[in-house]
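Worked problem 6 (solution included).
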Amino acid sequence: QAQLVEFGGGLVQPGGSLRLSCAASGFTFDDYAMGWFRVAPGKGREGPGREGVACVGSSDGSTFYADSVKGRFTISRDNVKNTLYLQMNSLKPEDTAEYHCAALLQCPGYQYDYWGQGTQVTVSS
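Solution. The predicted structure is:
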């Protein structure tokens, strides 16, 4: 059974950093592009409240970032550990959301085969 489990969320002050991890199992991780999405409070994952944050290609390591996080966030993957990462620096209150990882059909893209349960990130003083 395919599963994505996110770790690393929490409460951080503006300007701080967090590193999210997403552990994948039950499918061939390096067959998929992988991405991070965030969902605004009270919004559904399929609605307009969902924002694609960053994604990374399946084999060539190519990356794509939303303009809102470019220069602050870094996505990476370890195809040996079947793990996806998101290093988030210079965090802002508007980065507050539930962050989800997803196994994508392509990067950039929104179509996914698998979706994680999410980890909450709150940026507040």
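Discussion: Residues 19 and 87 are 4 Å apart (CA to CA).
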